[in-house]
Amino acid sequence: MAAARPDTPYEMEMVMAVENWLTTFPEMERADLIAIRKALDAGYRAFSRSYGDLIESLFDPLLYFLVWFEKLLLSTPWWLVILIVVGLVYGASRSPKLLVGVAVSLLLIGYFGMWENTMRTLSIITVCTILSITLGIPIGIMMARSDRTQAVVTPVLDIMQTMPAFVYLIPVVMLLGIGKVPGVIAVVIYAIPPVIRLTNLGIRLVDKEVLEASMAFGATRRQRLWGVQMPLAMPTIMAGINQTIMMALAMVVIASMIGVKGLGQPVLKSITNQYFTMGLFNGLAIVTLAIIFDRVSQAYARRTQRHLQGNAHG
Amino acid sequence: MAEPAIRPLVQVRGLSKVFGDNPLVAMERIGQGHSKDQILEQTGQTVGLNTIDLDIQAGEIFVIMGLSGSGKSTLIRHFNRLIEPTQGQITVDGTDVMTLSEKQLEQFRRHKMSMVFQHFGLLPHRTVIENVGYGLMVQGIEKSERRKKAGAWLDAVGLDGYEERYPAQLSGGQQQRVGLARALCTDADILLMDEAFSALDPLIRSEMQDQLIALQDRLHKTIIFITHDLDEALRLGDHIAILKDGLISQVGRPVDILLRPADAYVEAFVRDVNRARVLTADVVMQPPSCRLTNENLEEALRQMRGEEKDYGYLFKEDNFRGIVSRRAIEAEISKSGLKVDLIQLLEKPMSVHPGASLEKILPTTLGHPYPIPVVTDDGDFQGVVSQKDVISALTETRG
Ligand SMILES: Nc1ncnc2c1ncn2[C@@H]1O[C@H](COP(=O)(O)OP(=O)(O)OP(=O)(O)O)[C@@H](O)[C@H]1O
Ligand SMILES: [Mg+2]
């Protein structure tokens, strides 16, 4: 470039343009960008203004249930809650060690004054988990049934998992405001991919010969799904549910930013005010809940799948 | 065995299967007589089966044999339409399987055919008894009846006491017995067995073969049996089809395959077979050379001299009575004239079973100067085997 000396102003301009293009990114005009942003934002705002109430009312049943469940947990005497939880733990795992561990952790949580927040978090996590499972498993099944569905859903799941949670909080809040329901939606969006993925994977990994066997004996599609594919995919699906619960718990702090009450709020408060001990205690309570959910669901899975252990093939 | 059917129970006509995204191109090449390898190279399509024709009779064990990749599994999965053909027709008992709707196909699979799998295909989350009754469960039969029937079949394969175990707790041989019991439990006429014994140790495998033969003697099913093992094919098959690259090389009785291989491929297969173990007495036996029906000594002697035989086989009302040697008659006549009855000179000879292998009967034939009678368990005389017959069958090569 240096060798060819520009002679005319026109050529001079050309060279400069090329050099610009090479050294700095050829950006869109700032004004255009702003126009696009404005148009999109305005469009969405108009949409949420005209349909926000309608959509919000669709979620009313969910809201009633959330409120009812939280009230139920809060109004039940603490010892009864511990008894019920411990009973569920023992029923699922049949492990006395786990039972004692869970009881002691819950007692400690209460003793350190975090009982109410823990109950709030417990209620929202339970609802989110139930919601994720009831939505995620059917989606996973549909993905396993058709390669095309899988090709469409997989990138959506990728986006849901990699998109920072704050980004999709924005439209949810614009649409539904601040509160429990947008919180639940945000948590479910963040936490649902593992159930879907692992349901799909689990069904696809079912031994081809076992499936052929059930077909060869004249099983219908439904008999194959519920009699063969789902039971055999169950260990994988359980792993997915387990991950979903963990991710939901991890989301608790972020969800508290949009008004979800529970253990996340004190954590958030301690970040802004630099209360280290308060943050640590509430954080530990979240960890405790996570460990309880994790151990119990894994122990349950292990216990019910025991006969699948060992190599079925010679 | 059931009376010979006039029409074959299962008929396969022009069955072809191409794996790939453009089967029609491959079908065209098949029509032009191109081979599997050529078609794969030219079009990228895999030919699984190439215009197969087969007739399978009711009540027989029909073995389909071939090396890995020859299309055996593909073929057997067409009978119950686990795989859809690219072209061709399969008729079972007058029904064109290809025209069945989804519902009809389910009924067909429930009642007409059942299947045993190479790796057993058992449901790992169900107990042994539930696995055996699976076919009945699919049909919606209630639990108590299911258990009763499944229990009976479990007994029949020698696994009583294992009802409440899970498949993972059983050995390979036991698992395959469960697979067999499951297939028998639906009372389907036709049994598909895809390399059912290939995953088992040689000893267990031969036990399972015995068990299958014993069951078949009782049940008279039509069994389509896949194997890549010629010894197994020869042992079990009433007829054997040999498959190569999706094409049938030869169909015939085991003896035909063994003694008259149709091409070099079949011959290569057959070359290493231990004939002494595979060929049986009824294959090499001949009608007795000198059949006596008259008890008169002089008559017998005249007949034997006339036919230049040293031994005669005496029959009375078509029942085999024994062997008499010319030397004994001559000695008796010179000693005491014609007073003695032929019956008294009879030797009670050794006899062999029609199903006995040449390996087993060779010492007997070598140890006696006369051809050995072949007699069934019921005492029916079938023929005789001589040393010469046995030895030539063992050494004979393709003529
Ligand atoms: N689903 C499939 N997609 C593509 N090609 C296939 C498929 N199934 C089988 N084939 C091809 O068809 C041919 C026959 O396969 P098949 O499984 O029937 O062989 P086989 O005789 O049963 O072999 P083996 O003894 O190894 O079980 C092979 O070339 C195989 O690659
Ligand atoms: Mg195979």
Quick summary:
Chain A has 314 residues and is mainly α. In chain A, 82% of the residues lie in helices and 0% in strands.
Can you put this structure into words, describing what you see?
The complex is a heterodimer of chains A (314) and B (399). Chain A has one domain (44-313): MetI-like (MetI-like fold, Orthogonal Bundle), CATH 1.10.3720.10. Helix content of chain A is 82%, strand content 0%. Chain A has 15 helices and no strands. Chain A is globular and about 90 Å long. Helices cover 40% and strands 22% of the residues of chain B. A six-stranded mixed beta sheet of chain B has the order 6-7-8-3-9-10, sandwiched between helices. A four-stranded antiparallel beta sheet of chain B has the order 2-1-4-5, with helices on both faces. In chain B, strands 11-12-13 form a three-stranded mixed beta sheet. Chain B is globular. Chain B is an alpha/beta fold. Chain B is built from 18 helices and 15 strands. Bound molecules: adenosine-5'-triphosphate and magnesium ion (MG). Magnesium ion (MG) binds at residues 72-73, 195 of chain B.
Number of strands of chain A: 0
Helix- and strand-based class of chain A?
mainly alpha
Helix/strand/pairing category of chain B:
alpha/beta
**What is the strand content of chain B?**
15-25%
Q: Give average pLDDT of chain A, whole number.
A: 88
User: Rounded to an integer, what's the Rg of chain A over CA atoms?
Assistant: 26 Å
CATH superfamily of chain A: MetI-like
Which bin fits the share of residues in helices of chain B? 40-55%
Identify the bound ligands.
Answer: adenosine-5'-triphosphate, magnesium ion
Number of domains of chain A: 1
Give the strand content of chain A. under 5%
